[in-house]
Write a structure and sequence with these properties.
It contains seven helices and five strands; from the N terminus they run ααβαββαβαβαα. The protein is an alpha/beta fold. It has a five-stranded parallel beta sheet, sandwiched between helices. α1 crosses α6, α2 packs across α6 and α3 packs parallel to α6.
C-alpha cells in the first residue's frame, strides 16, 4: 500500500475510534478541568507527548496547566487535578504518581484503553479510549498501525475536542488564545 493510502486508512480508524468515546466521560473530563485550581499531566512516551500538547493548549486558554517532571512544575494539592494518559494503565511510574497525588488530596483522572487497570482503579474516574496495547496481544483487527499508535492519536483528538468544548463554555476564541502564545521568538 502507498503512503497516502495508509494515511486514509489511519483516518478511517480514527473515525471509528472517536465514535466509541463515551460522551459522558468526555464531558466529565471537561467539567473537572474547569473546577481545578491547577491541572497536571503525566504520561510515558508518546502518551506523555499528547499530555504536553494538551497542557500547552490549556495554558493558551489561561488555565494553570503543568507537566509532571518539569523543573517549573509546582506541588500538587487538594484543589488540583492530575490527568494521566496510559494505554495499558499499568505503567508503574504513573501508578506511583497517581498514589502520591491521591495522598495529597488531588483528583486523578486516567485516560486509558483499560478501564479495569491499576491506574483506573486509583483514579476518581477514567475515560476509556479504544485502541490496542503496545504489544497488541488480543488486538484482533483493531488497527493496521504499530504498537499503541491508534490510542495515542485518539488521545490527542480527545484532548483537542475538550479544548474546543472549554473554549465554547468559556466563550474564548483562537485570537484570545493566541495572545497567550509564546512571543519571544
Amino acid at each position: 500500500m502507498k503512503t497516502v493510502k495508509y494515511a486514509a486508512e489511519i483516518v478511517k480508524e480514527l473515525q471509528r475510534s472517536v465514535t466509541l468515546i463515551s460522551e459522558e466521560e468526555a464531558e466529565r473530563l471537561a467539567d473537572v478541568i474547569q473546577t481545578a485550581e491547577k491541572v497536571f499531566f503525566a504520561g510515558a512516551g508518546r502518551s506523555g507527548f499528547m499530555g504536553r500538547a494538551f497542557a500547552m493548549r490549556l495554558m493558551h486558554m489561561g488555565i494553570n496547566a503543568f507537566v509532571v517532571g518539569e523543573t517549573v512544575t509546582p506541588g500538587i494539592g487538594p484543589d488540583d487535578l492530575l490527568i494521566i494518559g496510559s494505554g495499558s494503565g499499568e505503567t508503574q511510574s504513573l501508578v506511583t504518581m497517581a498514589r502520591k497525588a491521591k495522598q495529597l488530596g488531588a483528583t486523578v483522572v486516567t485516560v486509558t484503553i483499560q478501564p479495569d487497570s491499576s491506574l483506573a482503579s486509583l483514579s476518581d474516574f477514567s475515560v476509556k479510549l479504544p485502541g490496542s496495547p503496545k504489544d497488541q496481544v488480543n488486538a484482533g483487527d483493531v488497527t493496521i498501525q504499530p504498537m499503541a499508535s491508534l490510542f495515542e492519536q485518539t488521545l490527542i483528538i480527545l484532548y483537542d475536542a475538550v479544548i474546543l468544548r472549554l473554549m465554547d463554555q468559556k466563550d474564548q476564541n483562537s485570537r484570545q488564545m493566541f495572545g497567550r502564545h509564546a512571543n519571544l521568538e
